[in-house]
Amino acid sequence: MVAEICREDVFKNAETANRHLGPLRVRILSEYTQVIRELMKQPEIIQGGMGIGVSHWGLAREVSLAGQLGVVAGTAVATLLIRRLQQGDPAGHMRRALAKFPYPHTAERILDRYFVEGGKPKDSPYELNSLYTLKPSTALQELTVLAGFTEVLLAKEGHEGVVGINLLEKLQLSNLAVLYGAMLAGVDYVLMGAGIPREIPGVLDQFSRQEKASLKVTLAPHSHDVTLTIEFDPAAIFPRKLEGEIKRPRFLAIVSSAVLAQHLLSKSNGAVNGFVVEGHTAGGHNAPPRGRLQLNELGEPVYTAKDQLDFDAMNRLGVPYWLAGGFGSPEGMQEATSRGAAGIQVGTPFAFCEESGLTDEIKKTVVSQWTAARDEHVFTDPVASPTGFPFKVVPLPGTLSEKPLYDARERKCDLGYLRQVLRKENGSIVYVCPAEPEANYAGKGGDVNDCQGRKCLCNALLSNVGLGQHQENGYDELPLLTAGDDLSGLNRYVKNGDNSYTARQVIAYILATPL
């Protein structure tokens, strides 16, 4: 029956269809057909959305071309865009994407301000965009929309595959504009974790109609309670409304438990189309352990049976889900699907493939060192991230994982993506990040103890992809690398004698298919 429904000739003549099936049945069958077609595009492998710029448009496009879900990281895309332009956009990709933006005058303004023919001198700092606030300037919102558009458009260019964008719920001040830009480019999936994204499904619904959307803002610790919101209104930013509706992407929430998944299904303000269930062995940010925080002898959070996924409860929810964290193998795929999952999300193997945004030097170093028999360990740092979430750190010489190098860096918060809103007792609003100078943080009303061990992820992660800042005092920002616990498993993808591998090799290995 489905095969017959999907035949286009069934619906070529609406009058005939109405006469034989009746208008209501035609509509039901048509909608059912669309669901079937969407399910047929459902991926087995989701490529992890690793920021900043590791999962850039080139990697996502390659994964999508291979028939899986390629995902761009939406973190700090405004800074990525303007730094690529200041490098001279050597291959012209940014300018090609900007030329397709539906509001050309906006794109021209961004080019006029940030593009440097031939690239800026290496010993001069990058120009910065302004910091995000509850009421960002029109110029910053335009830039952020354009950056989300550019990353997704390039990932979708020249093929019919599906592309997603991954965002951190914690980046509330910039997320709305990024999402709108991604939707203007036709993004197929939105994935979000590092928080509880209850309001995002409703935002996607509103943006599909080009309507204003808002988010409640999570306040920083030590704030005086009040409800604050941030909003994005397309009509206030762009001079004309586009014809028709914008495609509403499918929404996948990144969760750590069936309990949270159930909560999102019942409490979200729109459709949650599935989940990525991420265990504590995955790279980047991990969910904190359930219950009281305890540390092991290495100083890492201790995860217990309470943190194991309840597969029966997950399967009862009746929506597709993908497992993440150490499943990047045929055996991992088999385990995931046998438990009821639709497939797996894979991050670390894609992070170090040829198409990822990490610098060639970092990739070659990690692949050569970690594919050999080693006793190395990816450290789950409970305090490194200003978000308060545990963060995986790869011990790598010459990076901020080395304490002397970290201690030598002057604290500075000049990008501010992880800043939070703090409302003081007198009602005034300030913006704080526990990785900023301690005196500044305390002076704004924060507890200086929150600053202990915090690292500036914004600057460090940009250095991972070759876009680190050369500060005015002469200091060059150093990388801080993250990966999952399964980093030593990179030898699965590297052929004898090689020191690199491709995204397609990762996919072929996991699916046990020839290249």
Q: How many distinct folded domains? A: 2
So what's the CATH class of the largest domain? Answer: Alpha Beta
* Largest sheet report: 8 strands, parallel
N-to-C terminal Cα separation, in Å? 34 Å
What spatial order of strands do you see in the largest sheet?
Answer: 1-10-9-8-7-4-3-2
| Binned strand content | 5-15%
Class by helix and strand content?
Answer: alpha/beta
Name of the CATH homologous superfamily of the largest domain:
Aldolase class I
Q: Total helix count?
A: 20
Average pLDDT reading: 89
* Helix percentage: 25-40%
Describe this protein's structure.
The chain is an alpha/beta fold. It folds into 2 domains: 1-39, no CATH class; 41-288 and 307-511, TIM Barrel (Alpha-Beta Barrel), CATH 3.20.20.70. It contains 20 helices and 14 strands. The protein has helices at residues 2-6, 14-21, 23-40, 57-65, 77-86, 93-98, 104-114, 138-156, 172-184, 200-208, 234-237, 258-267, 311-316, 330-339, 348-351, 360-370, 403-408, 438-443, 457-464, 503-511; strands at 45-47, 70-73, 163-168, 189-193, 213-216, 229-232, 250-255, 274-278, 321-324, 343-346, 379-381, 391-393, 420-423, 429-432. An 8-stranded parallel sheet has the order 1-10-9-8-7-4-3-2. It has a two-stranded antiparallel sheet with strand order 5-6. Strands 11-12 form a two-stranded antiparallel ribbon. It is globular, with a radius of gyration of 23 Å.
